[in-house]
Amino acid sequence: MRASVVQRQFRCGTPGCRCTKGERHQDVIATRSLNGKTQTVRIRNGRETMAREWAENWRTLQSIVAELTAIELEILRLPKVTSQSLPQKKDNEKADLFVYITNSICLCLVII
Q1: How far is 111 from 18, CA to CA, in rounded Å?
Q2: Which of 4, 24, 68, 89 is the right S-S partner for 93, CB 3.0 to 4.6 Å?
């Protein structure tokens, strides 16, 4: 979940409520920015842990995508490989090599 999960304290404004005497109400909310506007969702009791895990999953995903981007940029910076510099293989073997390399990169990301 692309959001921040925070606990907030607030006054409800009801006359005579305990929050007018200094003891504020508390709840947990998730906030995110969408199209320049902040969206706020109150998280129900018992779902705080799940919401925090989802927010952490989003941060982890961002980190993995950043690492993948760095790897891809490094691959793009490698010297150009021409078909003459590679040992001659059948088309199927080249395709198998590509699949092997792609799967290896994905496996590295899963391990990270």
Answers
A1: 51
A2: 89
Q: For residues 112 and 67, is the Cβ–Cβ distance under 8 A?
A: yes
Flag residues of the chain having pLDDT under 70. 81-100, 103-112
Residues of the domain holding 66: 4-79+87-111
List, in sequence order, the alpha helices (H) in 1-112. 48-77, 91-111
| pTM recorded for the entire structure | 0.58
> Six-digit token pair at 19?
């929050």
CB 28 within 8 A of CB 5: yes
| Distance (Å) of CA 31 to CA 12, 41, 66, 102, 110 | 19, 6, 23, 36, 29
Q: Within a 10 A sphere around the Cβ of 91, how many other Cβ atoms?
A: 7
Instruction: Say what the pLDDT of residue 16 is.
Output: 87
According to the model, what pLDDT value does residue 80 have? Answer: 74
